[in-house]
C-alpha cells in the first residue's frame, strides 16, 4: 500500500487522533493509576502567608483510622533537600532553599507543613484535619516596591534582602545598538522629539489547567517508577536525581496523558519529591493528587510584573529609544525557571520595530505569595503588552493613527533577515501582508467610521479599536543561546523512528504532549516523509523507558524543534532503506529514487515499497555487506535560531459607558506561522491562546488580601471566561516560511496569548480615551471602567475592596458574620 | 476534595423527611439538588452528621395549577421550571430569571426550593419570589404552615424555615399577560449576579397599571423596590418614566461590597439596570 496518489499529509486539517480518548476520559491520567497496595497522601498546608511554626502536633492524626504515618520535614530527614531552580540569571542571584515541607517558617499561604499517609485518600484528608500546628504570625510581604524599600520585612532574612537579582541588557554595552541613556537625554533636549513614560501592571494570573497535579511513585521494582501529571518528564527525572540523589538509571518517569499545563506543569514539585521520598521510606506505592483548591493556591502562578517603560521618538514618528524597567514578583521562592521568565521578555520589547537604542532591566523580588513561573508565553506576553501599549500611547502623544505609526517603524518585508537591537536575527516575516489582510477581514475603515459616529452622537456605547502587531521568539531554543543566558539545560530535542517488521512505524519523541496534538501532527510529518499511511504511524512519548531522551514541551518548541528532529530521523531511515533497496534491486544506490514510499531504479519500472524494505531488514536474509540489518534511526536537533511567528490582531471593543461593561464584539487575527502541518490544530492553538490572552485583559486576576491570603482561589470567583463570554473569532493564517528549519515552520502554541492582551486593552482605552480616561488596569472589569469614567468626570468613587471574599466558599455571597461560609 | 464522613438518608415522603430531620438533630442538612451544599461539603466548610436527600419524594417535583396560583414543588429542578408551560404562561418572570441561573448542568440538578431555602442574596430567584408575592409552604412535625415571601427572607442565608422544618412548595399568584424582564449583570456568563433586577408590569393601553420590582444582591436578602413600583404606577411606559422611577431603586437597600463590586458601584448599577429592565419589560 502506498500513498503515491494521495495528496500530502502536511497541510491537511486532520481531526486529532488523540481527542477521542482525551475528551471521553477513556485513557490513563496520573490519578487513574493506582498500583496494588498504593497509599495516599494529603498535605497539611499553612493558612498563613508568613509565620513561624511554633509546634506541630501529629499525635491525634496518627491515631486516626487508616493512617500509616504523619510526617514533618524533620521526621523525613529532609532538611537538606532543596527544590531545584535551573535558571541563575546572574552569578549572584539570591536563591533561598525551598524545602519539600516548611522547615521552621512558612513563606506563603498554602505551603506544605506536614504530610499524612493513609490507606485511602479520604482517610488521609480526615486525618490531615487533626494535625495541630501553632503559628506565630509574621508580617506578610506583598508589595514589590515596599519589599525593596529600606527596613522592609524580609521574606528570607538570611538573604539580607528581598531582591533576588537584577538582570540588565543594554544595547549600547552589547554593541547591538546605541545607548538609551543618551537617546533619552537627547530626546529631552530636543524640541523635535517626545519622551513618553508609562507604568503598566501585569496582574498575577493562575494557569488554571484542567487536570490538577498528581504523582504516583512505585518503588517496588529495580527502577523507581514515577508517574506525574507533568509537562517535563525528562527534566523531572534528571531533577529528581539532582534533588534526591537517586541515580538517574534507577528512575523511570512517565507522563501519561496530561490534561493541560500552559506552563503550569513545568515545575519540579515539592509534592513530587515528597511522594518519591515517602515511597522509598515506606517501600510501597504512594499517590499524591491535589484538590482544585490546592492547585489554585499552590501551583505556580504567572505574570505579576510592574513595567516602567520610556519610549522616545522624533515628532515625525521615528522611534529613537526604548527603556524598560521591570519589577517581577517571584513569590516566596524561585521556581524551576521562574527567574528567567522576565528575561525571556527582554528580547521582545523591541518587537517588530526598528529601535536604535534599547535597555532592559528586571529586578526579581521575593514576596510572601505563591511562586511565579512560566505561564503561556512566559515573558513574551508581558513584553508584547508593554510595547504595544506604549506604541499606542506614543500615537496619542503624536496625534498619529496607531497602525500607521507602527508601519512607519516596523521592519519591512524586504529587510529580512533583520538583526534587532537585541542581536537576534529575525529570519522571515511580512508584517505588511498580515496587516493588510487583517484590516480587510476586520473592515478597519468602516469600524473607524462607526467609532467616529458614535463619538459624535455621544452614544452610550462607545467603540474602540484595539491593535496588536506582535512578534515573539519561540521554539526554545538554541542550546548555545540558552548557555549564554546561564539556563540550566540545552534546547535540543530528540527523536527516533522504528520501522516495524510489518511496515508500521513507531515514532518516539522527547517532546511530551499535554494536549497539543503532537500525535496527529507528528504522524502527518512522518507519513509524508516515509510515504506511509497516516494510520500506520504511532507516536510514543512521555515515558523515559520508551523515549529516554528529550527536553519536553514548552515555549512553542514541539514542532519547530521536536518536529525537525523527527524529520532528521526519517531522513536517516530513508538513507538506510535506500542501501537495502539498491542491494535487493541489484542497482547502484545512486540510481535509486525515493518518492511516495517507493524506492525505484531510475529509468525502470522496478521498485520496492518502504514496507518491503522494512520486512527485508527484519528477515535479514539478504542485505548489503558492511551494514546492520536495521532501519531504525535516532536524531537530535539543536536549532540554530529561534522561530519568530508574528501577526496582526484587531479587536472591536464596545464599552457601555453607563455600566462600564466591556464587550468584545469582533476579533480578527492574521498570524504568520510559516508552513502549517495541520491547519485545524494551528487554529485550535490560536483560539485557545486568544481566550487566555483576552482573559488576562478582561477577566482574570489572582487577588491577595492584606494578610497575603489568596481570596479568589476557586473557579467560582477566579473568573475564567467560558465560550459564552467570547465571540466567534475570525482567524486566518498567512505563511512566510521560516528559513531557519527544513519544514519552514514557526511555533504557534503561545501566539494567541502573547498577541491578544494588548489588543483588547488598547481597544478598551480607544473607546473611552476621548472621555478623559488615560489608563485602566487589567483586568478591565466593568467596575474598573466605570470608576475610570467617573474619575475622568472628576467624581471620586469608593475604593474597591478585595478582602471580603472568602477562599473557596463556593457561594455567591459572603456573610460578613460568617465569612468562611460555614453552614 | 472529599467531604468529611456523613450519614445519608433518602426518605420517600415528606413525613419521613421531617422525621429524619428530627432524628438528625442540629447537625442534619437537607440536600435539595446540592449545587451549593456539595461544594461546601467538599471544601469541608460544613461537616453535617447526616444529609437528608429530598430527591426521593416525587410529589416535591410536581408543578401544578392550584386555582389562581401555580404551585411548584420545592424539588422541581430549574430545568423543569424553565420548560413548564404553566410557568411560562402565568409566571413568565420566574421563567426568565431561571434561564439566567448558572449553566445547563446546574439547572438540571439545582432546584427552585433548594435555591430559595439557601437564600443567597446573589441568587436570582429570591427577588422574583419577593416581587411576585410568592407563598412558601413549610412542613414540620406539627403539620404545614404558609409564610409570605416578605416574611420568608430574613438575613444572609437565613429564612423562616425553622429547625425541623422543610420547604415543600412555592406558590406563585398568576400574572397572566404581565410583561416581564430579568436584567442580570455579572462578570462572566455563568457567574452569580453582581446586581440583577426583576420587573413585572401590568400594562393597560400603554400605561402601567401595576408594577412589581425585585432586586438581587442589593442587601442581605432580596429586596422589593417599592419606591420604583410606586413611581411607575400610572405612568406611560416611556424611557423618561423608567429613568425617573429607577432613581428610587436604591431606597431601602444595603448593597454589599466585595471583590466584584463595591457598594457605590452596585447602587449605580441598580439604578441603571432598573431603568433598562422596566423598558425591556414594557417592550
UniProtKB/TrEMBL annotation, chain A:
Pfam families referenced in this protein's UniProt entry, alphabetically: Ald_Xan_dh_C, MoCoBD_1, MoCoBD_2
Single GO term (MF): oxidoreductase activity
SUPFAM superfamilies xrefs: CO dehydrogenase molybdoprotein N-domain-like (SSF54665), Molybdenum cofactor-binding domain (SSF56003)
Organism expressing this protein natively: Pseudonocardia oroxyli
Cofactor(s) in the UniProt record: Mo-molybdopterin cytosine dinucleotide
Gene3D superfamilies with a match to the protein in the record: Aldehyde oxidase/xanthine dehydrogenase, a/b hammerhead, Aldehyde oxidase/xanthine dehydrogenase, molybdopterin binding domain
Record key words, sorted: Molybdenum, Oxidoreductase
Domain of life of the source: Bacteria
UniProt domain Aldehyde oxidase/xanthine dehydrogenase a/b hammerhead: residue ranges: 24-139
Region (Disordered) location: 791-823
Protein name according to UniProt: Carbon-monoxide dehydrogenase large subunit
TrEMBL record, chain B:
Residues covered by the FAD-binding PCMH-type domain: 1-177
InterPro entries reported for this sequence: CO_DH_flav_C, CO_DH_flav_C_dom_sf, Diverse_Substr_Oxidored, FAD-bd_PCMH, FAD-bd_PCMH-like_sf, FAD-bd_PCMH_sub1, FAD-bd_PCMH_sub2, Mopterin_DH_FAD-bd
Pfam families: CO_deh_flav_C (PF03450), FAD_binding_5 (PF00941)
Classification via Gene3D superfamilies: 3.30.465.10, CO dehydrogenase flavoprotein, C-terminal domain, Uridine Diphospho-n-acetylenolpyruvylglucosamine Reductase, domain 2
Keywords: FAD, Flavoprotein, Oxidoreductase
SMART domains registered for this protein in UniProt: CO_deh_flav_C (SM01092)
Any one GO MF annotation of this record: oxidoreductase activity
Protein name per the record: Carbon-monoxide dehydrogenase medium subunit
Originating organism: Pseudonocardia oroxyli
Lineage: Bacteria, Bacillati, Actinomycetota, Actinomycetes, Pseudonocardiales
Amino acid at each position: 500500500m502506498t500513498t503515491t496518489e494521495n495528496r500530502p499529509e502536511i497541510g491537511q486539517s486532520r481531526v486529532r487522533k488523540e481527542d477521542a480518548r482525551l475528551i471521553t476520559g477513556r485513557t490513563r491520567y496520573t490519578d487513574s493509576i493506582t498500583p496494588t497496595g498504593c497509599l495516599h497522601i494529603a498535605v497539611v498546608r499553612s493558612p498563613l502567608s508568613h509565620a513561624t511554626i511554633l509546634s506541630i502536633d501529629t499525635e491525634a492524626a496518627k491515631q486516626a483510622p487508616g493512617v500509616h504515618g504523619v510526617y514533618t520535614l524533620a521526621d523525613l530527614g529532609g532538611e537538606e533537600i532543596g527544590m531545584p531552580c535551573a535558571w541563575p540569571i546572574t552569578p549572584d542571584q539570591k536563591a533561598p532553599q525551598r524545602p519539600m515541607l516548611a522547615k521552621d517558617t512558612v513563606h506563603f499561604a498554602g505551603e506544605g507543613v506536614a504530610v499524612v499517609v493513609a490507606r485511602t485518600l479520604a482517610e488521609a484528608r480526615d486525618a490531615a484535619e487533626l494535625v495541630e500546628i501553632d503559628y506565630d504570625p509574621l508580617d506578610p510581604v506583598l508589595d514589590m516596591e515596599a519589599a525593596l524599600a529600606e527596613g522592609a520585612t524580609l521574606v528570607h532574612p538570611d538573604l539580607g534582602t528581598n531582591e533576588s537579582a537584577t538582570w540588565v541588557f543594554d544595547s549600547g554595552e552589547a554593541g547591538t545598538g546605541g545607548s538609551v541613556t543618551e537617546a533619552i537625554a537627547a530626546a529631552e533636549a530636543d524640541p523635535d522629539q517626545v519622551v513618553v513614560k508609562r507604568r503598566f501592571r501585569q496582574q498575577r494570573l493562575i494557569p488554571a489547567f484542567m487536570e490538577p497535579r498528581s504523582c504516583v511513585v512505585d518503588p517496588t521494582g529495580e527502577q523507581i517508577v514515577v508517574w506525574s501529571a507533568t509537562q517535563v518528564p525528562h527534566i523531572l527525572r534528571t531533577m529528581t536525581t539532582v534533588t534526591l540523589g537517586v541515580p538517574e538509571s534507577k528512575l523511570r518517569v512517565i507522563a501519561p496523558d496530561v490534561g493541560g499545563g500552559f506552563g503550569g506543569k513545568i515545575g519540579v514539585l515539592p509534592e513530587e519529591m515528597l511522594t518519591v521520598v515517602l515511597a522509598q521510606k515506606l517501600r510501597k506505592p504512594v499517590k499524591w493528587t491535589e484538590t482544585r483548591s490546592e492547585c489554585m493556591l499552590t501551583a505556580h502562578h504567572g505574570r505579576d510584573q510592574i513595567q516602567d517603560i520610556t519610549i522616545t521618538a522624533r515628532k515625525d514618528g521615528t522611534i529613537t529609544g526604548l527603556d524598560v524597567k521591570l519589577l517581577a514578583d517571584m513569590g516566596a521562592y524561585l521556581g524551576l525557571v521562574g527567574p528567567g521568565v522576565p528575561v525571556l521578555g527582554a528580547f521582545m520589547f523591541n518587537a517588530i520595530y526598528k529601535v536604535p537604542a534599547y535597555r532592559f532591566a528586571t529586578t526579581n523580588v521575593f514576596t510572601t505569595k505563591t511562586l511565579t513561573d512560566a505561564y503561556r508565553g512566559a515573558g513574551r506576553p508581558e513584553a508584547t503588552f508593554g510595547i504595544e501599549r506604549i506604541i499606542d500611547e506614543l500615537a496619542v502623544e503624536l496625534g498619529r493613527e496607531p497602525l500607521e505609526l507602527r508601519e512607519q517603524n516596523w521592519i519591512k518585508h524586504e529587510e529580512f533577515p533583520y538583526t534587532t537591537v537585541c542581536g537576534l536575527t529575525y529570519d522571515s516575516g511580512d508584517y505588511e501582508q498580515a496587516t493588510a489582510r487583517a484590516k480587510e477581514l476586520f473592515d478597519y475603515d468602516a469600524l473607524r467610521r462607526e467609532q467616529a459616529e458614535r463619538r459624535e452622537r455621544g452614544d452610550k456605547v462607545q467603540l474602540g479599536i484595539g491593535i496588536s502587531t506582535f512578534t515573539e521568539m519561540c521554539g526554545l531554543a538554541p542550546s548555545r543561546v540558552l548557555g549564554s543566558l546561564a539556563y540550566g539545560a540545552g534546547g535540543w530535542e530528540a527523536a527516533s523512528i522504528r520501522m516495524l517488521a510489518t511496515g508500521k512505524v513507531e515514532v518516539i519523541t522527547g517532546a511530551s504532549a499535554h494536549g497539543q496534538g503532537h500525535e496527529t501532527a507528528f504522524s502527518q510529518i512522518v507519513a509524508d516523509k516515509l510515504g506511509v499511511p497516516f494510520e500506520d504511524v504511532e507516536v510514543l512519548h512521555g515515558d523515559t523507558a520508551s523515549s529516554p531522551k528529550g527536553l519536553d514541551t514548552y515555549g512553542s518548541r514541539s514542532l519547530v524543534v521536536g518536529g525537525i528532529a523527527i524529520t532528521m530521523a526519517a531522513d536517516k531511515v530513508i538513507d538506510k532503506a535506500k542501501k537495502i533497496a539498491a542491494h535487493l534491486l541489484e542497482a547502484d544506490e545512486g540510481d535509486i529514487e525515493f518518492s511516495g514510499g517507493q524506492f525505484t531504479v531510475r529509468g525502470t519500472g522496478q521498485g520496492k515499497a518502504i514496507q518491503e524494505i522494512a520486512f527485508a531488514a527484519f528477515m535479514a536474509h539478504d542485505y548489503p555487506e558492511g551494514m546492520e540489518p536495521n532501519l531504525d534511526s535516532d536524531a537530535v536537533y539543536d536549532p540554530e535560531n529561534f522561530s519568530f511567528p508574528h501577526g496582526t490582531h484587531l479587536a472591536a471593543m464596545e464599552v457601555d459607558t453607563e455600566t462600564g461593561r466591556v464587550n468584545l464584539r469582533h476579533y480578527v487575527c492574521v498570524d504568520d506561522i510559516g508552513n502549517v502541518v495541520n491547519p485545524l490544530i494551528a487554529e485550535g492553538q490560536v483560539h485557545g491562546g486568544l481566550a487566555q490572552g483576552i482573559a488576562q485583559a478582561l477577566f482574570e486576576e489572582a487577588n491577595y488580601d492584606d494578610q497575603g491570603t489568596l481570596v479568589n482561589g476557586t473557579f467560582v470567583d477566579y473568573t475564567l471566561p467560558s465560550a459564552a463570554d467570547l465571540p466567534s473569532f475570525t482567524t486566518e493564517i498567512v505563511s512566510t516560511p521560516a528559513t531557519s528549519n527544513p519544514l519552514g515552520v514557526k511555533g504557534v502554541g503561545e501566539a494567541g496569548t502573547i498577541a491578544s492582551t494588548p489588543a483588547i486593552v488598547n481597544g478598551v482605552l480607544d473607546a473611552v480615551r476621548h472621555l478623559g480616561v488615560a489608563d485602566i488596569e487589567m483586568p478591565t472589569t466593568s467596575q474598573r471602567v466605570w470608576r475610570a469614567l467617573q474619575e475622568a468626570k472628576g467624581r471620586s468613587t469608593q475604593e474597591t475592596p478585595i478582602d471580603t471574599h472568602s477562599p473557596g466558599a463556593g457561594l455567591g455571597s459572603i456573610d460578613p458574620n460568617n465569612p468562611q461560609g460555614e453552614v | 476534595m472529599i467531604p468529611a464522613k456523613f450519614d445519608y438518608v433518602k426518605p420517600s415522603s415528606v413525613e419521613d423527611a421531617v422525621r429524619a430531620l428530627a432524628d438528625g438533630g442540629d447537625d442534619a442538612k437537607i440536600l435539595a439538588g446540592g449545587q451549593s451544599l456539595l461544594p461546601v461539603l467538599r471544601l469541608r466548610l460544613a461537616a453535617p452528621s447526616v444529609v437528608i436527600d429530598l430527591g426521593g419524594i416525587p410529589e416535591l417535583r410536581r408543578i401544578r395549577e392550584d386555582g389562581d396560583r401555580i404551585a411548584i414543588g420545592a424539588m422541581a429542578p430549574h430545568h423543569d421550571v424553565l420548560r413548564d408551560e404553566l410557568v411560562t404562561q402565568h409566571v413568565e418572570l420566574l421563567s426568565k430569571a431561571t434561564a439566567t441561573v448558572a449553566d445547563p448542568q446546574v439547572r438540571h440538578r439545582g432546584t427552585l426550593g433548594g435555591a430559595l431555602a439557601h437564600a443567597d442574596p446573589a441568587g436570582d430567584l429570591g427577588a422574583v419570589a419577593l416581587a411576585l408575592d410568592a407563598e412558601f409552604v413549610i412542613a414540620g412535625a406539627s403539620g404545614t404552615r404558609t409564610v409570605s415571601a416578605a416574611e420568608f427572607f430574613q438575613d444572609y442565608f437565613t429564612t423562616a424555615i425553622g429547625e425541623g422544618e422543610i420547604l415543600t412548595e412555592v406558590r406563585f399568584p398568576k400574572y397572566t399577560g404581565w410583561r416581564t424582564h430579568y436584567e442580570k449583570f455579572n462578570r462572566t456568563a455563568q457567574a452569580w449576579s453582581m446586581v440583577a433586577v426583576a420587573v413585572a408590569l401590568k400594562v393597560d393601553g400603554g400605561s402601567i397599571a401595576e408594577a412589581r420590582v425585585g432586586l438581587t444582591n442589593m442587601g442581605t436578602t432580596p429586596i422589593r423596590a417599592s419606591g420604583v413600583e410606586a413611581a411607575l404606577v400610572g405612568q406611560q411606559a416611556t424611557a423618561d418614566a423608567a429613568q425617573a422611577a429607577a432613581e428610587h431603586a436604591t431606597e431601602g437597600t444595603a448593597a454589599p461590597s466585595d471583590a466584584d463590586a463595591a457598594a457605590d458601584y452596585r447602587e449605580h448599577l441598580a439604578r441603571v439596570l432598573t431603568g433598562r429592565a422596566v423598558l425591556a419589560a414594557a417592550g
